[in-house]
Amino acid sequence: MGRSGKLFTVILKIGLLTAVSAAGTFGQKVTPPAAQELMAITERGIALNEYDQAVWHATDAVETANPKTVEGQRYIAKKENGKWNVVFGKLNKEKSLFQIHYEAKQQARPQEFAVSAETAQRADNGFYLLAARAIDATLRDFQGEQRPYNVAVLPAPQNQLFVYVYPAQTKPRIYPLGGDLRYLFSADGTTILEKRQMHKTILEASRMQGKKTVGGVHRHVLSDVPEDTDVLHVLTQDPPQPEFVVTPHFFYQVRADGSITIEKTRK
Fold first, then answer.
1. What is the pLDDT of residues 155-206, one digit of tens each?
2. What does the buried/exposed string (b/e) look like for 243-257 if buried means 16 or more CB atoms within 10 Å of the residue's CB?
3. β-strand 2-3 against 98-106: which pairing, if any?
4. Main-chain phi, psi angles of 102, to 5 degrees
5. CA-CA distances (angstroms) from residue 71 to 28, 67, 153?
6. Cα 251 from Cα 22, distance rounded (Å)
7. CA distances from 102 to 16, 62, 74, 119 (A)
8. Tell me: the pLDDT tens digits for 217-257?
9. Interior angle at CA 34, CA 216 and CA 192, nearest 5
């Protein structure tokens, strides 16, 4: 298959991302999700990608001075005034304060972070404390595979918190998708209000050097809409490329900018 003399391939990841059967779901009349719902997924996915990138570059900046600087410390990112701040530290014994040891602030270029050491170990009792509590509770509950995972915390409605756990990229140009959860926490970061399994099986999408791909595709039957991490999966690739998501009733495209469109209704 070719176009203008160039090879175009589609990364096929049709193997189910879950062991749940979709039998009996077809033939039912369903209403397509509202544009606002799809936009909310896009916005969370974009924020999740920004969080992921901020933590990556901030950690690199901190470790440049001393590779063991943040060993054993928790990283937490927060967007303020259009820029990301990433702090590194630990909860105190009583879990009443988050002791900040280092802070990395995003500069004019998104990949650049200026690092400062908190010699007095600044204590936070706001967002970073609540996020750290929620992360600890998440990791006590989460049961994944024997592989590295990333954790991210984003603000949720009503002052609650979303905590995401998703597989970390460990090899160049191999982008994992699946095996991820999203938790909803109470405002104080101590109580799990909702636990959403976004995908189950982890699939490894390979972007081969020298080959131009037009998109990936996977089947999803846990819900009838794409997930926040589908948007993350698109945006984290270099360069971003679309992902087609097949649900029991719809065929979606997550575009390279993270926006979501319904390409087809399945019958």
1. 999 999 999 999 999 998 899 999 999 999 999 999 999 999 999 899 998 8
2. bbbbbbbbebbbbee
3. unpaired
4. -140, 150
5. 52, 8, 20
6. 15
7. 42, 8, 11, 9
8. 999 989 999 999 999 999 999 889 999 999 999 999 999 99
9. 80
